[in-house]
Design a protein that fits this description.
With about 270 residues, the protein is mainly α. The protein folds into two domains: about 130 residues, Cyclin A, domain 1 (Orthogonal Bundle), CATH 1.10.472; about 110 residues, Cyclin A, domain 1 (Orthogonal Bundle), CATH 1.10.472. About 60% of the residues lie in helices and about 0% in strands. The longest helix is centred in the first third of the chain and has 27 residues. The chain is elongated, with a radius of gyration of 21 Å. The N and C termini lie far apart (about 55 Å). About 30% of the residues are buried.
């Protein structure tokens, strides 16, 4: 090897710094605009926007975070099996949210799901009255629920990265110590990255434990945090303690997918 040529790790570190700077700017911009942004869902039907619809409706329904994550996962799995042009993506999204409430033992009343979904699609509209439109939409959700169940072969209980992340974060907290750990919002940012990654179909492409590690490692890179007693000495990386088979290349691949999810967000919005 030419001594003047950068090693793969050096190249990776340089690339990492560039994309992390971009990611930090994207998140800062997104967070600053979040409260003032009102999405007009009638003007888009891509998977990112439909996933955002699930999250918005889920928050309005006060659904548990795992319920919302389940709904987003079911949505992506459904359209991985079926043609997106052949179905009303927002009907499927609302139905996934309703079904996820059952799956995660966080029941959401079908009437509440209908009214929240309708009002989110049609801003400022009144709650649905008990008329033809109400019963038509209710029947559509019931039929869509059966369709989703059949399309997914009744396998509607996904394994989430959340429980792995909780375990890993607790272990890291013990390694850092309470004082050092409290200096950085590692847990909050890792969970935020995981939540955002559910907007992308790539959430289906990797095992949940690897996704959890990637979100945490990306957070550590964003804040420039070094894991004590691991990265500072000539030992295995911290993530190999939890997954011996995980390579740096594979970890980088997943982190790139997480960062790429922010590029999928459409620019067109109504304020």
């Amino acid at each position: 090897m030419n001594p003047t040529e950068p090693t793969s790790n050096e190249t990776l570190s340089s690339k990492m710094k560039d994309v992390i700077d971009v990611l930090a700017m994207q998140r800062e911009k997104r967070n600053s605009l979040q409260k003032s942004i009102i999405v007009d869902y009638t003007k888009a039907n891509d998977s990112f926007t439909a996933s955002r619809f699930i999250f918005e409706c889920g928050f309005k329904l006060d659904a548990h975070p795992l319920t919302i994550a389940t709904a987003a996962t079911l949505y992506h799995r459904f359209f991985k099996e079926g043609d997106q042009e052949g179905y009303d993506c927002y009907l499927i999204a609302a139905t996934c949210l309703y079904l996820a409430g059952k799956v995660k033992d966080n029941p959401l009343k079908i009437r509440d799901v209908m009214n929240v979904a309708h009002n989110t699609l049609h801003r400022g509209s009144q709650p649905l009255e008990l008329g033809d439109q109400y019963w038509s939409m209710r029947d559509a959700i019931v039929q869509a629920e059966l369709l989703i169940m059949r399309m997914l072969k009744f396998q509607v209980t996904p394994e989430h990265p959340h429980r792995y992340m909780l375990h890993y974060l607790r272990s890291l907290q013990a390694w850092f110590g309470e004082e050092e750990w409290s200096k950085y919002p590692v847990a909050r940012t890792s969970m935020a990255l995981l939540q955002d990654f559910h907007h992308s179909t790539a959430i289906l492409d990797y095992p949940p434990n690897l996704i959890a590690i990637a979100c945490i490692n990306l957070t550590l890179q964003i804040y420039g945090v070094v894991v004590p007693l691991m990265d500072e000495c000539d030992q295995q990386p911290w993530f190999n303690v939890f997954c011996k088979e995980l390579t740096r290349e594979k970890l980088w691949e997943i982190m790139e997918k997480i960062m790429a999810a922010y590029d999928e967000e459409p620019e067109t919005r109504d304020n």
